[in-house]
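Form 7-S
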Amino acid sequence: MTAKLSVKEKISYGLGDMASHIGLDNVIIFLTFYYTDVVGLPAVFVGTMFLVARVADAIVDPAMGLIADRTQTRFGKFRPYILWLALPFGASCLLVYAVPESLSLGGKMVYASVTYCVMMLMYTAINIPYCSMGAIITPDNTQRISLQSYRFFLATLGGAMSTFLMMPLAEMMGGGNKLDGYFGAMAIMASIAVVMFLLCFLNTKERISAPPTHENFLSDLRDLVRNDQWRVVAALIFFNISFGVVRLGAMMYYVTYYLGNASYFMWLLAAHIIGKSLGSLLVKPLTRNRSKLAAFTLCAIMTGLLSMAIFFVPAWISLLVGMTLLVSTFYQVTTTLMWVMMSDVVDYGEYKQGKRMDGTVFSTLLAILKMGMAVSGAVVGWTLGMSGYVPHAAQQNTAAMLSIIALFSLVPGVLSMFSALSMRWYKLNDATMKQINQSKISREHEPVPQATLHTQESA
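Output:
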């Protein structure tokens, strides 16, 4: 019987994602606006930069996973990367918000491109081992759901801390200079993130034996592509993350130009954060009497319908706050379950192919996640640029205004519906996972053949 994880360990593991979201949520929510309206970069350039950088991640991510799968230290397989890369990750987040004011437009574009790529590289290098570790902390499906619930509740708090405090800290520390203000605010946030990663390293434990693989990279990738459930989850991840990036990327533009009051951003952001917290807490009750597949599908459909409905409702802030709360609640349930499904893909691959590839599975799925971020982030920038959006304009033209509204409602709604549709091909339900785990336990307790023992003794 699998030992129950302590609350301390669940919280400590969650602190790792809390730290990641201090940086990542800033990228999703503020960075496009920071680049276009604070630094003064063209929106089309920003969208293209996001796309190119994250496409590069499609190569870097699997490479990092393959390296992690071949790692073995006294700290474990994945935990040491959290220790080694905590400080570099914090520094890279700080550099993104350190665009020198004295540079020309071309210089700022080069600086933004380099520092953004470095930050995403550091995020990849620390996040892939962190995510992979979730699959070897415990093999128990119920404990995994609980672990991921803690993780995403704390990740939501990290995002809330970062996004709610970013603007007040920037105003307080900038003294009227927005560039200095953003830099000072991120310096505080990055320092907190480093401490959280260190606590995650100190208080977690790898329990599933995952010895380093010695097969070549191409063999691992070939086996991965043959895993049909990896392909299903890859599609699911692409649509799920695209929903969040498009919607959050459009939020600042939506409140500023459609609602006509930039201060409403904090109201919608608060509703989003509270909704995500509620969604993290709802995962366990929702999966108590129904399968995770049914819970995911139901919540993805509700997310899509509510999001699309926002396009047609009046621009009343109280109504939009309520709808945003509901959308974010249902969306967070799907996000939490998505990560449980990623761990299931690892177990399924080991069951079918006799080879455990935690790092390779998680890194390639994270590469898909970043591709989703890249494409959807580029869609926001390109759509604004091609619709005639003008930064700081008192009034946007009709095409730009419709684009902003659609990016906040219709487009993410459709993406969520595609996410629900992908569940039609997902077959790792609770009964199947129980069978896989029982089969693994049976194999572990099988007696070693005498011939094998003789060979080992001779060696």
